[in-house]
Amino acid sequence: MISLTDILTLLPESFLTVAICALLLLDVFLRPAQRSITHYLAIAILGVTGWLVLQHYGTPTAFGGMFVRDGIADVLKIFALLTTALVFVYARPYLRDRGLFVGEYYVLCLFAVLGMMLLVSAGSLVIVYLGLELLALSSYALVALNRDSQLSSEAAMKYFVLGALASGMLLYGMSMIYGATGTLDLNKIHAAAALSSQRGMLLFGVVFVVVGIAFKFGAAPFHMWLPDVYQGAPTAVTVFIGSAPKLAAFGMAYRMLESGLGSVGPHWQQMLAVLAVLSLAIGNIAAIMQSNLKRMLAYSTISHVGFLFLGLVNGQPAGYAAAMFYAVSYALTATAAFGMILLLSRAGFEAEEISDFKGLNQRAPWYALLMALTLFSLAGVPPLFGFFGKFLVLKAAVDAGQVWLAIVGAVFAIIGIYYYLRVVKVMYFDDADDAAAIAKPADAPMRTVISVNALALLVLGLTWGPLYGWCAKALGIAP
Amino acid sequence: MFANWPLLSILIWLPILGAIPVLLAGDRRPDTARLLALVVAALTFFISLGILSGFDQSSAAMQLQENHVWIETLNVRYHLGVDGISVALVLLTTFTSVLVIILGWGSVDEKVSQYMAAMLVLEGLMVGVFCAMDALLFYVFFEGMLIPMFILIGVWGGARRVYATLKFFIYTFFGSIFMLVGLIYLYFKTGSFELATLAQVALSGKEQAWLFFAFLIAFAVKVPMWPVHTWLPDAHVEAPTGGSVVLAAIMLKIGGYGFIRFSLPITPDASTEYAWVVIAMSLIAVVYVGYVALVQEDMKKLIAYSSIAHMGFVTLGVFISLALARGGNATGAAVGIQGAMVQMISHGFISGAMFASVGVLYDRMHTRMIRDYGGVVNTMPRFATFFVLFAMANCGLPGTSGFVGEFWVILAAFQSNALVGALAAFTLIIGAAYTLWLVKRVIFGEVANDNVAALTDMNARETFVLATLAVAVLLFGLWPAPLGNLMDAPIAELVKHIVISKGA
């Protein structure tokens, strides 16, 4: 029985759905010159949805526990909406210069956001799968947005085939879990898993679920799609799939592994520890060799996923809080990093090779400073935001008694620093091939917003207490 | 008048925030940037003198404390405070920074505003390191320092600057991240990052050993000790003069300070047990690196190696005192640490002065090779006077500050082990050899070539910098008592603390 409170609880998602459909219809009637209306409306939709999320209408759970609205969902939704709004602002000049400024981009991104919101609020395996597929299908289409580009089409195909495979794995694992516990409800699975007589089948399912999650995160050895997709997709799409979905992936991991399979924690924690070490190693070492900045950031993403897993391995609220903080800090930093690539690209010039950043300090000192802040944050150098994420996940690993894991993380953080510094080196120490000042890039909103975004990495580094407090509160840790 | 001010916060944030207007002055108005930077640095120095006005020298307690919650959920605090040891180093930092800004006035003419801003940010962070009483806060300042220094060497450095600055950054980062894991482990034990709490927590021998080596890696790289010293000659040679001065005068001291603040109080038993490791490394630094200095052909490299040798005295003094303290010789132990501290301050002045002097020559000749010089005294008599004075101080001539620290450390070493003392004393001869030989080849003799003949003596700005440093070197050489008194109480307290075993 669907009651009014159920609908009210789902109001943000419902509003978003209706708004997307309305936007899609409206966009059909707009002339290309009026496309900016779609742009601003999309941002407004995100804003209203975020406001609705914070209003907390209705009840903590809806539809008989299929949909959960708790602190974790709130944090993840707010930051997913925020980063998507940033992405829209950064993407507009890029899309316009390349003739990709179409309503589909916004609609697909918004559908992906809807998928994320469902995913992080999932209380049942069905909703997990529903949200995940909504996110994934929108992402495949987004990667292929520039259909004349061979590279993009190839990336989209690769993404689609491997993504479908991973979905299949996940679904297969879910069916095993259903078979072992007899329920799709995550809370009931949690209770049933501890007592299940079908332990073998259950753990078999857990393996497939972990593989599915690892694929969505892009954790090694399930990372093969990630560098190609990041590089092949138009940068305006890369900035989207490189940021907000990481928050959703954390939400999915939390719902599946903690809410659902928390009672068999030691089993999946071991698997995640192995994935973490592999991701740290492969991500950091492969990134050193890249000359394409987007590809380098893709490998860096893999290493960041490794760090995030250090938090999940902990398996306690403090560990999840650390991982969630890490996901938020990574999403905001990655948005800024890809945003800088967008900022410096022009029509016919992609600015995606590391050498394109040569001598940036001579040509545009302000943007060089912003990019340097972003890179130092990714590298995890205090006092920037990224450091505190690393600090928290290392702490989570030590708290879990896995000091060796923390040391492995520390060693790879040192290796990782090299390739970030290499970009700083190129910007600051090398001379530009063309020393002329860069033509005033992009449009004013983007310049302002990206400045705020990059400076926020410094400010949040100095005042990360409230944000961490929010994450900790969401997981029920008393201050 | 300063009693109610958050003095330490001002000293940290004034230069950092002051860097913003300097940066805004932009490259098109270099003189505005220079002037602004000088005003900020000078103001910071004068305010730092204010510390002394209300400072109780007889107390070992942390004073001028500021204690605010930084991260409530994790009980991380923005906790600042200074005792005599910190005060000496804070004053050294603010003092040196003013001189560095003045030095950069003429020798840096590219991207001036960025250079000055980086220097100011660096100053603020260094002051923060010496004031932090919360380990995480310390770590943030400690690592944050790398960013401006990385930029300083990389942008304004010499030909191999990129190699040098990457090596500098990665080496130091490598050292400190293990310390971070160690600190997290301590937090796990105590639920706090307060240094005072960490100093009290009971730790088993094995835990102490792990933590000791985590700290050792971090601070040994920073000092730097043999065999992790190789980044320093590269960084020094490639850094601009100002960068070299800051590196030698202040940054290296952070390593020694770390040993005194972290290793000794938190892991006293492991420090005693493994003191021989550090002492052996220090003696190798003092003797072997001294010989390495002897054969250098690049002046900056020679002074860099001499820095490593002199910092070897610091680590020697700190760790020799452990054996003395445990053996019941509290006075001897205090002399060792006292000597190490005085050596740090004095080396700050002397190495800073030596690098500044090389900078004066480099600005004129654009070479640092010793063979390109000779007979400089004939054309630059004023400069030669100062250079010889600093060289003498570098050898540890009595009457200069270089003597006091080395003498105290050797004194302590003899009380512990005559062989160690003898080896340490032996270095004075090597030190004299490489320094005096440098002076002979560069300053004295016939005018070597036309370039030297064309040299002009120092201008007022350069004279001012070197004269100020000369006054400091002589003052603390002839009258080290104020410095000693400042640090007496906290050192006595530290010696009392390290005697007590923390074994659980």
Report on this model:
- With 479 residues, chain A is mainly alpha-helical.
- Helices cover 76% and strands 1% of the residues of chain A.
- Chain A has a two-stranded antiparallel sheet with strand order 1-2.
- In chain A, helix 4 packs antiparallel against helix 20, helix 6 packs antiparallel against helix 12 (244-260) and helix 8 crosses helix 12.
- Chain A is globular, with a radius of gyration of 21 Å.
- The two termini of chain A are 39 Å apart.
- With 504 residues, chain B is mostly helical.
- Chain B has a domain at 274-499.
- Helices cover 77% and strands 3% of the residues of chain B.
- Chain B contains 22 helices and two strands.
- Chain B has a two-stranded antiparallel sheet.
- In chain B, a hairpin with a 4-residue loop joins strand 1 and strand 2 (76-82).
- In chain B, helix 3 (84-107) packs antiparallel against helix 11 and helix 14 packs across helix 18.
- The longest helix of chain B is centred in the last third of the chain and has 36 residues, at 330-365.
- Chain B is globular and about 65 Å long.
- Chain B starts with 6 loop residues before the first helix and ends in a 5-residue tail after the last helix.
- Classes of the chains: A mainly alpha (479), B mainly alpha (504).
- Chain A binds chain B through residues 361, 365, 376, 381-383, 387, 391, 394-395, 398-399, 403, 406-407, 410, 413-414, 417-418, 421, 424-425, 428-429, 464-465, 468-469, 472, 477, 479, and chain B through 27, 69-74, 76, 111, 114, 136, 139-140, 143-144, 146-147, 150-151, 154-155, 161-162, 165-166, 169-170, 173-174, 177-178, 180-181, 184-185, 187-188.
